[in-house]
Amino acid sequence: MAIEIQNLNVQGMSCQHCVHAVKSSVSALAGVDSVDVSLEKKLVTVGFDPGKTSLKAIATAIEDQGYSVVQ
Ligand SMILES: [Cu+2]
Question: What is the pLDDT of residues 38-68, one digit of tens each?
């Protein structure tokens, strides 16, 4: 399975707690291979198997933590 890498612009992340909340919620999804968060760039970089999850599911997991994903 090929891993797809995508960037999401996420508003509302301000500290390491936010980084941790986003990382742990996204990495809990089946099919997610890697999660990186840049507070400076307001960017979440996700590596995932598109056969097991989708960018939409990943965005929803982030929004469930109280952050806004800008499409
Ligand atoms: Cu925070």
Answer: 999 999 999 999 999 999 999 999 999 999 9
